[in-house]
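// run 5 | inverse folding | seed 20
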């Protein structure tokens, strides 16, 4: 262990083999369909380059990022990858997209006009995707635009690489919105009969084969997160995080713990203070009070509760249950690992696994293991 690792505030380990195995497992769900990979937000907080290389080694060829900056990083890491920019075509950036072989998701008449005009000027039909809004009310052509878009395609002779939409309630498997969006998307497909289609994210892929079409694009499931609410997660945990105990102290009945004095000790207690806080991406909403249970972390396989407010650099844990043989300063606490998943933390913090992962930007010694990367 090098000197920096030895004094690090925490150890974040990322299992690239697990990411590859998760992609392969998802790929098997949709035989005959291309399985892409969403690697936006810096590979869901785990590092865009190593994550993308691990996915490519597993077999992924189609990648989705949020913006052209991420696309440039990905292009450098994977010269032969097929890269889609989910955020669309940045105004005036058509040259960059074409030079770097990045495909914009075209969401509006303005984007489509700019891209088609660029293709005409260059005399080449650079690939792009068409995105239709079937119920998210976020990015995408409206349903009322479908005929206009089709006419533009017929007039220009342009053939999009793929048509897409996005499910907004796929994590709720029986939500009526899923059936509505699927039906609307199928009606759009009828206007573009020779164009490949893509609708399914992780949840859409895992919930219903009717969503698969020609290309699926999993995200959170690749990273071991729960895709469908109320269903056992079949994917492998990808990240583990440990942080050290800085001090173990005694607290007396009636004393309070943390900012705001919102947690009052109901018994004489042993309290472990750990090197972790919201500056490290451990969400403040994981705090506890006497009326609200917060997150639980693990020491030697035993879950222990957070006491009081999460502060910028420190979290207090109740280790009274260990008795006289309790943990000592320097001992490591499992924040994520075999006993605490990203979804366990998310549930405790009132959020989703996506936010837990993308918040892991703290003062950690970050280690990758598994697939050997060049």
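// decoded
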């Amino acid at each position: 262990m090098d000197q920096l690792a030895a004094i690090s505030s925490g150890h974040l380990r990322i299992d690239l083999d697990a990411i590859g195995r998760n992609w392969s497992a998802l790929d098997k769900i949709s035989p005959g369909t291309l399985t892409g990979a969403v690697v936006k937000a810096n590979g869901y907080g785990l590092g865009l380059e190593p994550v993308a290389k691990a996915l490519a080694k597993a077999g992924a060829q189609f990648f989705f990022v949020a913006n052209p900056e991420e696309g440039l990083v990905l292009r450098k890491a994977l010269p032969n990858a097929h890269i889609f920019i989910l955020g669309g075509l940045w105004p005036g950036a058509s040259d960059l997209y074409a030079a770097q072989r990045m495909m914009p998701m075209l969401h509006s008449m303005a984007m489509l006009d700019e891209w088609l005009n660029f293709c005409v000027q260059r005399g080449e039909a650079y690939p792009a995707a068409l995105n239709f809004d079937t119920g998210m009310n976020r990015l995408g052509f409206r349903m009322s635009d479908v005929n206009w878009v089709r006419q533009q395609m017929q007039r220009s002779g342009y053939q999009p690489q793929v048509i897409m939409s996005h499910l907004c309630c796929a994590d709720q498997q029986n939500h009526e919105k899923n059936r509505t969006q699927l039906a609307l998307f199928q009606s759009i497909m009828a206007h573009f009969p020779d164009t490949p289609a893509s609708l399914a994210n992780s949840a859409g892929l895992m919930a219903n084969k009717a969503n698969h079409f020609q290309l699926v694009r999993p995200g959170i499931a690749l990273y071991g997160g729960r895709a469908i609410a109320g269903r056992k997660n079949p994917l492998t945990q990808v990240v583990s995080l440990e942080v050290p105990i800085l001090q173990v102290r005694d607290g007396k009945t009636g004393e309070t713990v943390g900012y705001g004095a919102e947690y009052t000790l109901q018994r004489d207690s042993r309290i472990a203070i750990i090197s972790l806080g919201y500056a490290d991406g451990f969400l403040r909403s994981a705090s506890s009070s006497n009326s609200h249970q917060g997150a639980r972390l693990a020491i030697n396989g035993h879950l222990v509760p957070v006491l009081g407010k999460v502060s910028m650099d420190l979290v207090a844990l109740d280790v009274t249950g260990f008795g006289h043989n309790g943990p000592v300063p320097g001992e490591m606490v499992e924040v994520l690992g075999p006993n605490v998943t990203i979804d366990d933390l998310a549930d405790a913090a009132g959020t989703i696994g996506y936010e837990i992962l993308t918040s892991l930007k703290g003062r950690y010694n970050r280690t990758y293991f598994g697939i050997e990367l060049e």
